[in-house]
Design brief:
Layout lengths: L2 H5 L2 E3 H11 L4 E4 L6 H9 L3 E4 L3 H15 L3 E5 L2 H17 L3 E7 L2 H5 L10 H5 L5 E4 L6 H13 L5 E7 H5 L1 E3 H7 L14 H13 L3 E5 L1 H5 L3 H11 L3 E3 L19 H7 L2 E5 L27 E6 L13 E4 L2 H11 L9 H23 L7 H14 L4 E5 L2 H9 L8 E3 L9 H12 L3 E6 H7 L3 H6 L4 E7 L28 H6 L3 E5 L2 H14 L3 E6 L16 H6 L1
Parallel strand pairs: 2-3, 2-4, 4-5, 5-7, 6-7, 9-10, 9-11, 11-12, 12-13, 14-15, 14-16, 16-17, 17-19, 18-19
Antiparallel strand pairs: 1-8
The chain binds adenosine-5'-diphosphate and magnesium ion (MG).
């Protein structure tokens, strides 16, 4: 080749996007092919990226979000224009709400036509639509800006409070060419994408002084604490301080749920009684009754509502969002908790034993009661007898991932199934969203290679059920357990007019196991705990795609699970 032709060697938008992702250590993309990204996905695979292709964009997006939470790197999802983009948008908004780093990259139609609203194929001003629903949104019009576009997307997704980022790539961009060497030079390898944020020493001291003054201190660990991957610092802090803690649902396993300081089994007692509450990567949103009302301080007479809060968070505007925060500590959780460990010094005295003793007493009582309930073996499985099996499976396989969605299937699993390792529980998160099941399960299996057990209510499973084909296609070690109680909440509703079935009821005795069999996976029905245990054990040992249709008493659930108070009619009745 003469120097002359080498000089004229070109690259194109397709390859610049691929090279920019690879340069930034992104090795996996979740996607759904179609115009204008089909060739892009083929080329990505040819260039060594792992491309996981889904049946619906929402699940590709959810997979990217879960990958982001598990790895701390932005999860990448590619979608086609307008309808594909909109399908992915729910996942992007959900990722942002949950503070998971994710980048939704969507092909789009021609700007000239879109902006004049001349009716292009899949026409939509996607950037404008995405903007209010994510942390940041960018569009790249020229091949030479691809490097900057990808770099800005990565930084926006993972720095500060993580979240969802939208990147708009119009169809024309992919085919644009430029000089290969100039293209290479235009790419950016992002340095220190999620910089440490060191807390101010005086903020840490203020918080430590408040903790010291507490008679009934409590730590609440949220999924931000799990995401921060500061596991050793957090363990050291909890154990050195001796303070009882509550894990929010996705922080379960950050410390093993059977840890002596876990107050989960005395949750309502500690929330009501604690005088100083330290939030670590947890928000005082609806999941914590906004830090007020009868959940908080109801049991403490004169001191009702007198809790003081410490909030450790990367977002300075989170403090005071619901109640006054006496001691905000702003920084990344690793740096903040290290600073606490230092500031506590060597002479730290653990919380009074009347507090820890009172908690232990309630815990023992509640755990004994729970053990009795779990040991019962009713003729038709209920949530407890089925989850007792899942609980033991997770105990025997602590590195396995547990995906969980539903109403009763969610609430019961959260309280019954203990977790032992950080970031192993993936669930409906801040929104309480249904439909994350198969997307999260695929992501966990793909990025970790570990076994995944997905406990899904029959309704929840329906939102993403077609992705069992994806699970089979990539032969992933995913075992889906459908808690089949013939409907939403329960399967027993009737229509008073006697015409069509009630809105919450499904086809009775549905054979969900056949869905998995349809694509070559293992599908099996379980009518009792022995069958469920056998099927789960086999699934984990074989690593084969499996779906267990777990038959649950159709009368067993409660309306809206544990959030009955949010259901307008039920709340009125109370
Ligand atoms: P949960 O639902 O478990 O209570 P939330 O999603 O409500 O958790 O809260 C997570 C919090 O963690 C958010 O306020 C977010 O800003 C914060 N956060 C996320 N990552 C970090 C980090 N690395 N360091 C500090 N705070 C973080
Ligand atoms: Mg159900």
């Amino acid at each position: 080749m003469s120097t002359d032709t080498q000089d004229r060697e070109t690259t194109d938008g397709f390859h610049l996007v691929i090279d920019a992702l690879k340069l930034n250590d992104i090795d996996t993309i979740f996607a759904l092919p179609g115009i204008p990204i089909t060739d892009f996905l083929r080329m990505s695979q040819a260039e060594g990226l792992k491309v996981i292709s889904f049946r619906h964009e929402q699940h590709a997006g959810n997979a990217a979000a879960a990958a982001g939470f598990i790895t701390g790197k932005p999860g990448i999802c590619f979608t086609v224009s307008a309808p594909g983009f909109l399908n992915g948008l729910t996942a992007l908004a959900n990722a942002t709400t949950n503070c998971f780093p994710m980048i939704l990259i969507s092909g789009s139609s021609e700007r000239e036509i879109v902006d004049l609203q001349q009716g292009d194929y899949e026409e939509m001003d996607q950037l404008a639509v995405a903007k209010p629903l994510c942390k940041a949104a960018f569009r790249v019009l020229h091949a030479e800006d691809i490097g900057v576009g990808i770099a800005r997307a990565i930084r926006s997704a993972v720095s500060g409070r993580p979240g969802g980022v939208y990147l708009d790539l119009p169809a024309k961009l992919f085919a644009q060419t430029m000089d290969k060497e100039a293209g290479r030079k235009s790419l950016i390898k992002v340095v220190d994408a999620a910089p440490r944020q060191i807390p101010a020493p005086e903020a840490v001291q203020r918080a430590v002084d408040l903790l010291k003054s507490a008679r009934k201190p409590l730590v609440i660990l949220g999924k931000g604490a799990a995401y921060a991957q500061a596991d050793a610092e957090i363990k050291a802090f909890v154990e050195k301080s001796g303070i009882p803690y509550l894990p929010m649902s996705m922080a379960k396993g950050l410390l093993p749920d059977n840890h002596s300081q876990s107050a989960s089994a005395a949750r309502s007692y500690v929330l009501a009684e604690a005088d100083v509450v330290m939030l670590v990567g947890a928000r005082l949103n609806w999941l914590l009754s906004h830090g007020k009302g009868k959940t908080w301080g109801a049991g403490s007479g004169k001191e009702a509502g007198k809790q003081q809060f410490i909030q450790v968070d990367i977002s300075p505007t989170e403090a005071d969002s619901n109640v006054a925060i006496a001691a905000p500590v702003i920084g990344d959780i690793g740096s903040c908790i290290s600073a606490f460990n230092q500031a506590m010094g060597s002479g730290w005295s653990k919380p009074p034993s009347d507090w820890t003793g009172a908690i232990a007493e309630r815990k023992d009582k509640n755990l004994t009661k729970m053990a009795e309930t779990l040991a019962k073996n009713p003729p038709v499985m209920n949530f407890h007898s089925a989850l007792n099996v899942v609980r033991n499976t997770v105990k025997d396989n602590p590195k396995a991932y547990l995906v969980n969605e539903g109403a009763n299937a969610l609430d019961f699993t959260r309280s019954i199934v203990d977790m032992y390792e950080p970031r192993r529980r993936l669930d409906v998160g801040t929104w309480g969203i249904m439909g994350i099941g198969m997307g999260y399960a695929v992501a966990a299996a793909v990025v970790t290679g570990k076994p995944v057990v997905a406990v899904c209510g029959d309704s929840a499973f329906g939102f993403s059920g077609m992705e069992v084909e994806t699970i089979c296609r990539y032969n992933l070690p995913v075992c889906v357990v459908v808690f089949n109680n013939n409907g939403i909440y329960k399967g027993t509703d009737t229509n008073p007019r006697g015409t069509e079935v009630a809105p919450t009821v499904f086809v009775k005795n549905a054979k969900y196991e056949l869905l998995m069999q349809a694509f070559g996976g293992h599908g099996v029905r379980a009518d009792n705990p022995e069958q469920l245990k056998k099927a789960l054990d086999e699934a984990i040992a074989s690593g084969k795609p499996t779906l267990i249709n777990a038959i649950i008493d159709e009368t067993a659930g409660t309306e809206s699970g544990r959030i009955t108070s949010l259901n307008p009619a039920m709340a009125k009745k109370k």
